[in-house]
Amino acid sequence: MKPSLLDFTKEELAQALSPSFRAKQVFKWIYQGYVDDIEAMSNLPKAMREHLGQTYDLTPLHVVREEISQDGSAKVLFQLRDGHTIESVLLPMKEEVVDEEGRRVSHPKFTICISSQVGCKIGCTFCFTAKGGFVRNLSAGEIVGQVLAIKKRHNIAPERRVNIVYMGMGEPLDNLPEVVKAVKIFADIDGLSISPKRQTISTSGLSHQIKKLGEMNLGILLAISLHAVDDALRQELMPINKAYNIASIIEAVKAFPIDERKRVMFEYLVIRGRNDDLGSAKKLVTLLHGIKAKVNLIYFNPHEGSAYQRPELKAMEAFRDYLNAHGIVCTIRQSKGLDISAACGQLKERSTHDRT
Ligand code: SF4
Questions:
Q1: Structural domain harbouring 275
Q2: Residues 25 and 117 in one domain
Q3: With bands split at pLDDT 50, 70 and 90, how would you rate the model's confidence at 277?
Q4: Cα 85 from Cα 173, distance rounded (Å)
Q5: From ligand 1's centre to the CA of 71, what distance in Å?
Q6: Where in this chain does the record put each Radical SAM core domain (predicted)?
């Protein structure tokens, strides 16, 4: 199989091409010109186009299926070159901005949620992806290719910046080298120009990898799937907690470099009668003391055979209000795409059933 051009940073491409300034042109064609065909890179000499075509691949990710929700969010199932499938989600939102005349106008904003692995090793009990086990890491090009394909497919102009969340299939910090490379490719100003400040790595809490990522000082944002304030419940939900307990995660987050204007996001899955009481809210305030944190409360949605129940709105609001009153920004997640396969891994699951 020929290597994909999407797997290269511009610097790597500059080393592979002579003269090296051609790398900038190739980057612009791919990420700003949206071309899928090397032949279309008309400012490159013919011989170079031929060489590139013989040596590299530029086939876009193949879309197997797409589900569009009534709220406009789209879930896309992609097939990789080796036949494995992964999924990504496009979340359109509205952002209020002030125009030149001082008027507040509503402005479309996009977030794309991408996968970093085929399957996952982490084994969270509430997750569909976990059931299929781990298959392999994605390459940087396969990570970048998801955003490129979605932008093209949904006619999002090349110059329109999007936010990226590494929150689809897989644990991004378990594939750190390729994820870091993808962060750099996304950020390239001759490419998609998505600054690390618009990229969020969402992790199950691999504390040693959080430390490693922090030491790289990329300026990226961090989201932690915390879900519980005591190790017993967290271990029940996320067996990985045996290896990386809550204390180790908090310690790693405290050492992580955060932009002054940003916060670390803590995801908290609320389960009726287990972690929805004010005692848990109080423990959470204590745990997050000293961290510029934002908490996102997520309703637990029971599925067939699940041992837990959905919390009541009253409990969610009381939890949120307690946190807000104690200096922690807290929101209740407005689930998007509830009418399509909403949980991570569900689209893939359904498509597999359809084929069998
Ligand atoms: S929730 Fe995320 S980290 Fe946990 S098993 Fe699923 S994909 Fe992996």
A1: 62-355
A2: no
A3: very high
A4: 20
A5: 25
A6: 106-339
Q: 329-355 pLDDT, tens per residue?
A: 999 987 665 454 444 555 555 554 443
CA atoms within 13 A on the CB side of 236: 13
Is the predicted pLDDT of residue 28 greater than 90, yes or no? yes
**Model pLDDT for residues 86-98, shown as the tens digit of each residue:** 999 999 987 776 7
Q: Beta-strand (E) ranges in 24-132?
A: 62-68, 74-79, 85-98, 104-114, 117-119
Atom of ligand 1 nearest to the CA of 238: 4
Look over the chain and give the mean of its residue pLDDT values, rounded to a whole number: 91
Tell me the CA–centroid distance for residue 141 and ligand 1, in Å.
21
Catalytic residue among 66, 67, 87, 142: 87
Whether residue 265 has its Cβ less than 6 Å from ligand 1 = no
Q: Are residues 51 and 67 in the same domain?
A: no
For the Cβ of 87 lying below 6 angstroms from any atom of ligand 1, the answer is no
**Residue where a domain stops, chosen among 55, 75, 96:** 55
Cα(223) to ligand 1 centroid in Å equals 13
Q: Structural domain tally of the chain?
A: 2
pLDDT (0 to 100) of residue 342 = 44
- 101 flagged as catalytic: no
Same domain? For 75 and 183 the reply is yes
- Burial (Cβ within 10 Å: 0-12, 13-18, ≥19) of residue 266: buried
Query: Given pLDDT bands bounded at 50, 70 and 90, which one contains residue 117?
Result: very high
Quick one: 203 exposed, middle or buried, by C-beta within 10 A (0-12, 13-18, 19+)?
buried
Report the nearest atom of ligand 1 relative to the CA of 204. 3
Asked if residue 127 belongs to a known ligand binding site, the reply is: yes
Q: Residue with the nearest Cα to atom 4 of ligand 1?
A: 124
CA distance 252 to 203: 12
Report CA(86)–ligand 1 centroid distance (Å): 13
217 backbone φψ class: left, alpha, beta (φ>0; ψ -120 to 50): left
Q: Centre a 10 Å sphere on the Cβ of residue 15 and count the other Cβ atoms it contains.
A: 11
Residue 96 annotated as catalytic? no
Which ligand 1 atom is the nearest neighbour of the CA of 171?
3
Indicate if 135 and 271 belong to the same structural domain: yes
